[in-house]
Specification:
By secondary structure, this protein is mainly α. It has one domain (12-379). 76% of the residues lie in helices and 0% in strands. The chain contains 13 helices and no strands. It has helices at 14-33, 50-123, 126-135, 148-170, 174-181, 190-209, 217-235, 240-245, 247-270, 277-306, 312-339, 346-369, 373-379. The longest helix has 74 residues, at 50-123.
Length: 387
């Protein structure tokens, strides 16, 4: 290992662990909202409302980028301790093999849930949905659904390490100079401005040429850039104290940006033929404000709250978060589809879906996964204590 900034092995950061788990939970609660948005989707409940659009837009705008910040931080910490070989072994064991298993088992189940839910929501008949399940057309493998995230995580890890070694091979000390100059990203005032500009560089084409879907090239570049931000944050982890001093100010940036983001992005969804580069630019810049504001704000809040004293609940959710991510989507879709046959208001259906699925997911983890071989595989490492 070189004697660069990265060579100092840090103590485990419980705040980052807790924040990563929180973002997985945000994604789960966000997925439960999707049947009730007015945006065209493969499964929509008959009861929809624009307020669900705004809430879902807000959550999804910052949740995935911020998750990749925490993922980049964690990979950088692992790289510092174990080097590229250790990262490769860890990613192979904790992401690649679970991805293969999950793709084989969960892809058809997710397809089945979507077919069931779409049939029930359009026909109003649970029996017709059950007939679709019994027909068995869903037993096939193609689309990865939410597992695209794991593919991206593997790709981003390989790209980040490749870029680091590439910088070393180009010029002696280049990697060190890049790491030192990246400190500007986390300065109290200039850092958010710089990151908003960086985020907008990918989000403007994402909303000018596409609808902001996470699997498009501009959005993948957007998420990768935040993975790199997380890597640099590990290098300059002392800057977390500055973020913790003013988390409310950063969140205010996000909230002020949200109305403009909601207007411009909804226009892109519903009237793409009316959307030009100007509207796409408004959507991209305002969304960048939401992303950066919430990222800095939540990083600061979690650092202030959990860096010295981790939460038992947070530690438990950190261990459970991988399983939560893997299993939640087909359950949410299936329960939401079944409730679409009722005449309940959208808010009640959403709350019932959450009330049914969250305890079911946590029960499967606690009683079936936590102390199993699968549970140890998903954790990826033995439990550590902070130095």
């Amino acid at each position: 290992m070189s004697n660069s900034i990265e060579a100092v092995a840090p103590a485990r950061n419980f705040a980052i662990d807790h924040l990563r788990a929180a973002m997985i939970c945000v994604v789960m609660f966000g997925h439960a909202l999707l049947p009730y948005v007015t945006v065209p989707r493969r499964f929509k409940d008959p009861a929809t409302h624009a307020s669900f659009d705004v809430v879902a837009l807000f959550l999804y705008t910052f949740a995935m980028p911020l998750f990749f910040v925490t993922a980049g931080y964690a990979v950088a910490a692992l790289f510092t301790r174990r080097g590229a070989r250790g990262v490769f072994q860890n990613r192979l064991r904790t992401i690649f093999f679970p991805l293969l298993i999950a793709y084989f088992l969960l892809t058809p189940l997710t397809r089945a849930s979507y077919q069931f839910a779409a049939t029930v929501s359009t026909s109003g008949s649970l029996q017709m949905g059950i007939d679709v399940l019994l027909a068995g057309d869903w037993i096939r493998w193609s689309k990865a659904y939410h597992l695209w995230f794991l593919v991206s995580l593997l790709l981003y890890t390989a790209m980040a390490i490749g870029l680091r070694y590439g910088a070393i091979s180009i010029a002696a000390g280049l990697s060190q100079r890049i790491a030192e100059s990246s400190r500007a990203l986390f300065q109290p005032i200039t850092g958010p401005i710089l990151l908003i500009l960086i985020a907008a560089a990918t989000l403007v084409p994402a909303y000018s040429l596409y609808d902001g879907d996470a699997t498009t090239l501009p959005m993948q570049l957007h998420l990768f850039s935040f993975f790199i931000v997380g890597w640099f944050l590990h290098t300059h982890r002392d800057r977390l104290d500055d973020m913790a001093a003013r988390p409310g100010a950063y969140v205010l940036i996000a909230l002020l940006s949200l109305p403009v983001a909601a207007w411009s992005m909804r226009l892109r969804w519903f009237a793409p033929e009316q959307t030009d580069w100007f509207t796409g630019a408004i959507a991209g810049v305002s969304s960048a404000g939401v992303v950066v504001g919430m990222s800095f704000g939540l990083l600061g809040y979690f650092h202030r709250r959990f860096s010295e004293q981790p939460s038992p609940v947070g530690q438990y959710l950190s261990e459970a978060s991988y399983w939560i991510f893997l299993i939640h989507l087909p359950l949410l879709i299936f329960v939401g589809g079944a409730l679409s046959a009722t005449a309940l208001p959208a808010t009640m259906k959403y709350l019932l879906t959450v009330a049914i699925v969250v305890p079911a997911v946590m029960a499967t983890y606690h009683f079936g996964v936590r102390n199993s071989v699968l549970g140890r595989l998903l954790k990826g490492r033995p439990k550590e204590t902070k130095n």
